[in-house]
Structures are given as structure tokens and as C-alpha cells.
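[agent] plan:
  1. take the single chain provided in the ticket
  2. run structure prediction with default settings
  3. attach C-alpha cells to the ticket
  4. add a short note for the reviewer (M.T.)
[agent] executing step 1
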Amino acid sequence: MLQYFIDHPVWIAVFVAVILLTVFVCFKAAQASSRRYAANEKTMKKIKEENTLRNEFSILTENLISAAEPDRLFKGVALNLQKKISDADDMTAEFNALSDGQQYIYALSFYIKDGERTPIDGKLIYRGIDLKDIVSGCRSENRFGYEEVSYLLLFGNLPTKEQLEN
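[agent] step 2 finished; step 3 output follows
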């Protein structure tokens, strides 16, 4: 049998090519599997983080709201609203049953990209104003921001100091 392969070297080349191709395919499969595993791990981490936020902010209290980091609070509330709406039989009716503030939070927690609803992670931007800046300003000056945010929602811009005092 060895003499046959010596007399016909083409078969040796075919045999070596098959072995190399098999090794190459196995290597590529391992790479694809590794990438898929990493993607699954990333997805699982995101799901765990979202579940933690949902649980943390499922029942809102004054203490929780005042002590929470604004980004975490917003994302937790938005995730709970998203779950509440997506679990409903009639999503439109469930959305319409939300308060105006809840509807704003839900609507502002996503943007449309290529026809798909994509979450805005930890950002609440309304009319070009990052509400994190308002919260930070209120906390640093030890004041409430209800009037400012209400004015922003009603009139579309932030009030001046004069308007706030009146």
C-alpha cells in the first residue's frame, strides 16, 4: 500500500490538503464558538444587570428616589415600565393607562435606529437638555428641581431665575 502512494504522489497531496482543511475548519469553528460564547456572556450580564435594576426600583419610595443615582433610577423605572407594557395583552391601552410622567420616561428611554427601538442606556435627554445636569445642579445647590422640570415639560425650555422665583 505504501508503494501505491509513492507511485501516485497526487494522493499524498490530496491527503495533506484534507488534513490541513480539517484543521482550518476546526480552528475557525473554535473561533466562532468563542465569539458566540463571549456574546452570550455579554447578553447574560446585561440581563442580570437589568433584572437587578428592575428589582431595586420595583417599588419606589421617597428614600429610594432621593438616595438613588439618577442614571440608575431612570433606567430602573424605564425597565419596569417597559416590562409592564410588554407583558400586557393590550400594549397600547397599558401605555395610555400610565401617568404623563411615566409616558415621558418610557418614551424618552428609547430611540428608533434603523426601524428598531434601541434603549438609551442611562440617559434622559429632553429637548437637548440632559436631565442629569438638572439633577446634579439641584443636588449641589440643595434645592428641589420639580419646578424646573415641570417648566421644561410645559414650555420646552428651562426657566430663568426670575421665572423660578415667580
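[agent] step 4 note for reviewer: Residues 2-42 form one domain.
[agent] ticket updated
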